[in-house]
User: What shape does this take?
Amino acid sequence: MSRLIALCAGLYGLLTMARGIWPVHHLQQELLGVRVHIVPGPVGSALTVGLGAAIVLVAHGLARRKRRAWQVAAGVLGVLTLLDAFRPKDFDSLIVSVALLLLLVACRPQFTGRTDATLRGSAAGASAVILAMGFLVGMVAMGADRQHLVGDTGLGARAVTVLRGFLGVGGPVRFEAAHRQAQFELTLVAFTLLVIAVAGYLLLRAAEPAPFRTPAEQAAVTELLERHGPRDSLGYFALRADKSVVVSPTGKAAITYRVITGVAMVSADPLGEPDAWPPAIAAYLALCRRNSWVPAVLGCSAEGALAFRRQGLSVLEIGDEALVDASSFSLEGRSMRNVRQMVNRVRRNGYQVEVRRIEQLSGDELGVLEECAARWRIGRLERGYSMALGRFGGPGCVIVIASSAEPDGSPRPRALLQFVPWGNDGWSLDLMRRDPAADPGMNDFMIVSALQQAGQFGISRVSLNFAMLRQAFAQGERLGAGWAARGWAGLLRQLSRWFQLESLYRFNAKFGPTWVPRYLCFRGIASLPRVGYAAMEAEAFVQRPVALKRLSGRTVVSGDQLVPLPRTSALPRTSTRRLAD
Assistant: This one.
């Protein structure tokens, strides 16, 4: 019902704006047979356009059941109803506005979504800045063309004219040329509409709190991971510092998420036994409804996607995870010829590999490797979200170090991998870094060495990179593939220049993996663009400016550290992998 109300409100707002722009209506009433102009025509036009724009802006908030959007819509419709009462020729508009207002009142209990209370000051500040800019523009425009003004051209009169111009009302000063006057008035009204748009966005946007979890929630995540870690190769990444937690009422399952542009982005499957997932998913969806967040799940398995679909989310396959059976891995055979040649070439050039648990490294060794990992990183931010830990080192992690010999014989790190635990018998690839000056094939060399030594650590299965949209490339290469499949694969190859889609697929395929599909879950096709952007920002493919993040209350990432900003008071204290690096 909320979406229907939002659609009706949006259409009504557009029609109201059109009615205010053309033709211009005068607010008038007949009293004792005499037609009295209550408000001059330009004011009525400006009010109508502004109020219509406000209705259009809050329509999106109504669709997401935001309480503040309901309050604004009800107030604006009340004003429009009052204005329509003074328009004798607009009886049909009066009926529509009254009907829509009554519908809003009748459906009031549905609009319970919270908005970010911390942005009220930001909305006021942004409005003041925009109005100050508009005032300055108006004063400069009149001062630069002062010889063509009519009326009192004093500074005070010009200031009054600008202030009244924000409301679409003429002032004591006018331009001689009609087109110049119209341009001046439209410019000031445009600043007013910009204020409405910016303030409306800030006041109605969903809260985007800094990631937070209580000690009890952290303990629940750790316990669930220890008990059920072997089930999902991505479970360990729930320990990322930038994820909040929702724990089921029974404590048998938990979901980790992060709020990005109003999307509560879950990564991978819930923690815990699948039978305990439904209560955790229900609690997560209830939290989304209370805070007007868009629910979404990035990189879940088929079992997880089915559980979320049963709770009303849509499912889309987005790629495949490459799983290698370490116990049977071999470089023998024609299919491994290229990898074998690359590995032998790197080995002949004097490189050596060590595979060591993080606990076996000394503090000095960890410091050197951490500095190397930061120096070799491409870009300022750590990429990854659903399949990355976001930091160097963690309990149970395994580091693969490729080194070359210095002239004095001491080893010099040239590349490294980091694997996180996947239960007791598996590894999941997290970090891939190498010195840009190192020989080509270092990643192949390290992965092969890790697979060959995995048995010494009791490891039988290894999760490599995630290949996004792998099926599209595979289908486009098949014999007899249709023009649609070839065209889609060709388009993805062009996009691979920026997002490394094909290179990740090719790199993974060299090791003969088993491909396991991963899915994206979302609420309705209309939310897919927003969810897609949030997923790209979570994976650090796109980034909003830091100033905009601070304005929205987001956690700002500086290097490898998370710097939490003040949390919003409106929220309870609940809580692609990369090859280029």
